[in-house]
């Protein structure tokens, strides 16, 4: 028998959905930025600089202590891929979303995220706790990929070359 979501779980889910809701705006904004600055990689640089400018006042307001860079140097190599992943995502968003449309791009991104997340969870990769792959989780991801296929099929005739 399943139990309903607790209030704290519902709040976490709501916060995650809200965080995800801003991502299509990021893709569209970065695409416009890429067109304006003349090259996608320069747009990626500008976007990351804006991110730094946006987070600096928050760090100051929270009086966050200085980073412990000494401890960070002992991390495994995979701990440093976050920044690289950000560059790949931002660059892909500004190159692909204008051609595919935001819906198709985001559906594919979500599909890729969920597939990779299943693998990370199942094997406990990158220091994450292990969460076994279950039939329900596989079916959920499969439903997302069916959605990706439906979105892509409905958009296929309008993809700009």
Task: Give a written overview of the molecule.
The protein has helices at 7-37, 40-62, 69-72, 81-100, 102-123, 135-155. It has 2 domains: 24-64 and 78-100, no CATH class; 101-156. With 161 residues, the protein is mainly alpha-helical. The chain contains 6 helices and no strands. Helices cover 75% and strands 0% of the residues.
Order of helices and strands: HHHHHH
* Main sheet specs: none
Report low-confidence residues grouped into runs of 5 or more.
none
Helix content: over 70%
Radius of gyration from CA coordinates:
19 Å
Q: Tell me, what's the shape? A: globular
Structural class: mainly alpha
Number of strands: 0
Question: Mean pLDDT, rounded to whole units?
Answer: 87
Number of domains: 2
Number of helices: 6
Binned strand content: under 5%
Distance between the termini: 51 Å
What would a concise description of this structure say?
The chain crosses the membrane at residues 41-62, 74-96, 102-123, 135-155. 75% of the residues lie in helices and 0% in strands.
């Amino acid at each position: 028998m399943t139990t309903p979501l607790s209030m704290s779980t519902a709040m976490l889910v709501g916060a995650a959905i809200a965080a995800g809701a801003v991502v299509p705006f990021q893709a569209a904004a970065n695409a416009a930025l890429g067109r304006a600055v003349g090259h996608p990689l320069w747009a990626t640089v500008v976007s990351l600089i804006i991110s730094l400018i946006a987070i600096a006042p928050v760090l100051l307001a929270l009086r966050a202590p200085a980073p412990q860079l000494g401890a960070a140097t002992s991390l495994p190599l995979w701990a440093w891929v976050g920044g690289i992943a950000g560059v790949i995502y931002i660059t892909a968003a500004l190159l692909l979303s204008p051609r595919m449309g935001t819906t198709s791009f985001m559906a594919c991104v979500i599909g890729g995220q969920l597939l990779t997340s299943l693998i990370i969870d199942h094997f406990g990769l990158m220091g994450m706790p292990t969460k076994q792959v279950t039939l329900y989780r596989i079916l959920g991801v499969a439903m997302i990929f069916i959605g990706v296929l439906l979105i892509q099929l409905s958009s296929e005739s309008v993809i700009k070359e």
